[in-house]
Amino acid sequence: MSIAAIIPAAGLGLRLGGETPKAFREVGGDALLVHAVRGLKAASAADLLCLVVAVPPGTEDTVTKELTPYVGETRLLVVAGGAERSDSVRLALELVPVEGIDCILVHDAARAFVPVDAIERVVAAVRAGASAVVPAVPVTDTIKQVGPAGEVVATPDRSTLVAVQTPQGFAPEVLRRAHAAGVVGATDDAMLCEALGVTVLTVEGSPDAFKVTRPQDLLLAEALLAERRA
Ligand code: CTP
Ligand code: MG
């Protein structure tokens, strides 16, 4: 059995700003999307049967050419993404082969620097029988729930909170069922599984799997890469 991976990379990166969609923004001379693909390949090597990337409409051919040198034997499919992240994942999921896959990873292009060991923990947990697995890290801020006027409603006990990352890993049948149910407003795929009553397991994530979201995240990414290359 093999792994399939979906990379949602179709977002515009409005919070990051700039002219170029976020997945194509470069760190250390390579696009975030290229870093993300390299990470998945490094973690799953020959096991990665198929990679489906959702990109901004109109960039499919360019992205196919750019990624081909990095995928080796893995089958690469590039599809136009949708309006929301969950639409992009759903469109990509339609292209994932049904046969021969025991784990589907969904990995944000924007989390381009996730370490190999975090990816491996996700895959291992799915292969050990979990239906849905998310890498998680403790939250460092105190989190408040607020009301419409910005007033604090509650302060959840921080020791019970985690921040979740990608890649998230799924038993293929569970991910398909979750997307078919089509819950609106889901910001990750695990949330769609939770809506079905599926238990989502957390495994240890990594601070390096932060999501490039705002301009200062690019500075952090450059520094991280420089340290890794040193
Ligand atoms: N994504 C996607 N399709 C969308 C929206 C987002 O494939 N319609 C992808 C992004 O490319 C990114 C991941 O989902 O890899 C996480 O989304 P986010 O960090 O919010 O990226 P953007 O939506 O591009 O950024 P912003 O919300 O700041 O515009
Ligand atoms: Mg977004």
From TrEMBL:
Pfam families, A to Z: IspD
Site (Positions MEP for the nucleophilic attack): R158, K211
Swiss-Prot/TrEMBL site (Transition state stabilizer) positions: R15, K22
GO biological process: isopentenyl diphosphate biosynthetic process, methylerythritol 4-phosphate pathway
Catalytic activity entry: 2-C-methyl-D-erythritol 4-phosphate + CTP + H(+) = 4-CDP-2-C-methyl-D-erythritol + diphosphate
Pathway: Isoprenoid biosynthesis; isopentenyl diphosphate biosynthesis via DXP pathway; isopentenyl diphosphate from 1-deoxy-D-xylulose 5-phosphate: step 2/6
Family classification: Belongs to the IspD/TarI cytidylyltransferase family. IspD subfamily.
Protein name, entry field: 2-C-methyl-D-erythritol 4-phosphate cytidylyltransferase
Organism (species): Kribbella antibiotica
Origin organism lineage: Bacteria, Bacillati, Actinomycetota, Actinomycetes, Propionibacteriales
Gene: ispD
